[in-house]
Amino acid sequence: MVLNSSYLVGNSPVWGEVDPITTTGSKRGKVIEIPADIRDQMVEHALAAVPNEACGLLAGSDGRVERFYPMRNADESQTTYRLDPREQFRVFNEIEGKGWELSGIFHSHTHTEAYPSETDRQQAFYPDAHYVLVSLADPSSPSVRAFTIVDGVIQEQEARIA
């Protein structure tokens, strides 16, 4: 275990002793499989957070999401998100305890397309994770898209809803 404040999601440090979370199940070029009920949970969380962005983590193995962890947006902002550090620490410990991987980092865009913003790109600290975005630009038909962000380069990946 190491004390490392470089484990950030949405500019949120994890304080305390942490082991690095592996993300081998969601490496670049791989599909992220999101069960329909988990997609629905993400959309519900996004709608409930309006007018602010919603956020959370996705965990699973072999590229398949097993659990969505809805989290509080500590920024309480319409344009940015930051995971609550205590929640993030707890969730990382649970993911590790279950033998899962960090499959994705979720957040919503309330008025723009599901595409990483410049802020999202600058705060992408997990090159092997999928960044899963829900757009509420059309609340009657939310869109879900997944991306990898490596060294500032955004690449869309397949988000397979099963």
What is the gist of this entry?
This protein has 162 residues and is an alpha+beta fold. Helices cover 20% and strands 35% of the residues.
Beta-strand segment tally: 12
Written as H for each helix and E for each strand, in order along the chain, the element string is EEEEEHEEHEHEEEE
List the domain count as a whole number. Answer: 1
Residue fraction in strands: 35-45%
Description:
The protein has helices spanning 36-49, 85-97, 118-122; strands at 2-3, 8-9, 12-13, 17-18, 32-34, 55-61, 64-71, 101-109, 130-135, 143-150, 153-157, 159-161. The strands form 4 sheets. Strands 7-6-8-9-10-11 form a 6-stranded mixed β-sheet, with helices on both faces. A two-stranded antiparallel ribbon has the order 1-4. Residues 1-28 have low confidence and may be disordered. The protein is built from 3 helices and 12 strands, in the order βββββαββαβαββββ. The protein has 162 residues and is α+β, with helices and mostly antiparallel strands.
Would you spell out the secondary-structure blueprint of this structure?
Layout: E1 2-3, E2 8-9, E3 12-13, E4 17-18, E5 32-34, H1 36-49, E6 55-61, E7 64-71, H2 85-97, E8 101-109, H3 118-122, E9 130-135, E10 143-150, E11 153-157, E12 159-161
Parallel strand pairs: 5-12, 8-9
Antiparallel strand pairs: 1-4, 2-3, 6-7, 6-8, 9-10, 10-11
Key terms:
alpha+beta; Cytidine Deaminase, domain 2; two-stranded antiparallel ribbon; 3 helices; 12 strands; 20% helix; 35% strand; globular
